[in-house]
Amino acid sequence: MKLDDRGLLIVLSGPSGVGKGTVRSALFEMTGHDLVYSVSMTTRAPRIGEKNGREYFFVTRNEFEERIKENKFLEYAEFVNNYYGTPLDKVEEQLDSGKEVVLEIEVQGALQVREKMKDAIFVFIAPPTMQDLYERLKNRGTEPIEVVEARCEKARREIKLAYLYDYIVVNDTVENAADKIMAIIRAEHAKTERTISSYSKLIEEEEKKYWKEIQCYYESSRKRWNALPCYWPISI
Ligand code: 5GP
């Protein structure tokens, strides 16, 4: 019997530009865990090289708002004038099939998931410094400078909420950060509250086996006893 059958929901969160995507890619390259990425939906325009269904599902504001009304998101947030959300349908299904589902989302969304999925793991990915974050956003060259400023302003507020997470991982190098997250996933799998119910079943099965063996032993002793010559005065 396999212990710990249900997958974990791993929420990677933190400010825009901190390198969540790069850390996630490095994490997915490590072997030994069945990780799947939950592709989000957004109303922001695709950047050069982004493909619908791979980085995001790109939709219009109307489409997004329709889905909000239909309760089709596990969480969603408005971030610097665009909507971003996690489609609900696949997440539970993949967790039930034993996969580790990774969300890569901003802070408001992560806090909504915290309310709904009590056993998810929340990792805040932090920049080494704010200056570092600003440089990264600017050098990425994907947004005009006003948007970079707005994202940095948002990051200052988000960083103050890091204490609400289970873990804080500083993205000093991608390898370090990914290694730490993998260590967290492994440790979380071994947590008593996660393994105890399957482990109890294992103990129950062992006990049943033990009592069956005792019964067999008793039966064979009884047969041997009763097979003793008939001048033996009693039978059991
Ligand atoms: P970007 O426009 O740079 O791709 O993403 C902006 C921010 O939105 C990033 O911090 C990213 O992690 C976050 N984000 C991406 N997908 C989701 C989502 O489904 N929900 C929420 N709440 N945030 C998301």
Throw out a few tags for this protein.
236 residues, alpha/beta, Guanylate Kinase phosphate binding domain, 2 domains, 8 helices
Compact description:
The chain has 236 residues and is α/β, with parallel strands linked by helices. It has two domains: 14-34 and 100-190, P-loop containing nucleotide triphosphate hydrolases (Rossmann fold, 3-Layer(aba) Sandwich); 38-98, Guanylate Kinase phosphate binding domain. It is built from eight helices and nine strands.
Secondary structure topology:
Blueprint: E1 9-13, H1 20-29, E2 35-37, E3 40-42, E4 56-58, H2 61-69, E5 73-79, E6 82-87, H3 88-96, E7 100-105, H4 107-116, E8 121-126, H5 130-140, H6 145-159, E9 167-170, H7 174-189, H8 192-226
Helix pairs in contact: 1-7, 5-6
Q: What structural class do the secondary elements suggest?
A: alpha/beta
User: What is the top-level CATH class of the largest domain?
Assistant: Alpha Beta
The hetero compounds bound to this protein are: guanosine-5'-monophosphate
CATH-derived architecture of the largest domain: 3-Layer(aba) Sandwich
SS strand fraction: 15-25%
Sheet of most strands: 5 strands, parallel
Write down the secondary-structure element order. EHEEEHEEHEHEHHEHH
Structure description:
Helices cover 49% and strands 18% of the residues. The protein contains 8 helices and 9 strands. The strands form 2 sheets. A 5-stranded parallel sheet has the order 2-7-1-8-9, with helices on both faces. Strand 5 and strand 6 form a beta hairpin. Bound molecules: guanosine-5'-monophosphate (5GP). Guanosine-5'-monophosphate binds at residues 16, 20, 40, 44, 75, 77, 79, 84-86, 104-106, 108-109. Residues 16, 20, 40, 44, 75, 77, 79, 84-86, 104-106, 108-109 line the site of guanosine-5'-monophosphate.
